[in-house]
Known about the structure:
The chain has one domain (46-267): Alanine racemase (TIM Barrel). 43% of the residues lie in helices and 15% in strands. It is built from eleven helices and eight strands. The protein has helices at 15-39, 57-67, 77-83, 101-110, 123-139, 168-178, 193-197, 204-220, 237-242, 252-255, 264-267, and strands spanning 47-51, 71-74, 92-95, 114-120, 146-151, 182-189, 228-231, 247-250. The longest helix has 25 residues, at 15-39.
Amino acid sequence: MSSSSSSIPTSEVPEAEMAARAQALVSGFHSVMRRISAVASPDRSVRLVAVSKRKPASDIQALYNATKHTHYGENYSQELFEKAPVLPSDIQWHFIGTLQTNKCKQLASSIPNLWAVESLDASKKADALNKGRAALLEKNPDAQKLRVFIQVNTSGEESKSGCEPSDTLELAKHIIEKCPHLTLQGFMTIGDIARSKESEVPNEDFILLSKTRDEIAKSLGRETNTLELSMGMSEDYEQGIKLGATNVRVGTSIFGARPQKEDAAAKKDVQTPMP
């Protein structure tokens, strides 16, 4: 992998079109960053994960070239497997989609710059990720442990992945005690968008995730600020930040609307709400 912009073929795209697209991406990115700065507290940094689901690698390359932003997220493992090798090696990838057990080992072992998996919801998947990362570290001792966020189903919706809040402590202990090649980074939820749109009422999902984090930190004997909160997408990241998020996953506000028709590779992965 290379940090050179030449890694993405552009010869078939008109130069003016490329420039206009890059300008639109940069404009969207800076708009989101300004909105994050407007609501974030001075004593808490907020990480922006730019989510490029079903967008070409050239979009990421253009945004990276213009801003040097390095945190990018993917919902589908197949897209990540295809994009990571052709994009700069200092990109810090986040996998945020529904995590399938049979993809865990490959995710952890084949993408050295996979910075975090944000959708871990079962000990079996943690074991598979740990095994995959162990294989990578054996070949590349300079690689880092894999950070993981436990996804918590705070809304109780059957359509959403995530473990129950009451089961989260057990999974956290399993990661810490049984998975030496993983680092528990924090907790993630996909909140109910309708709750966020009720501006007069704070989103109950975000409040519950924060409460769950605080209780688990106390049980583990850790300071709450050592465990992050990943909550908030394009439609509700500002409320997520107001309620304690340190990590937000924003796609549409930067990359624009996704195409409705998915390719065969994407269909192999279970869909998750569009960030």
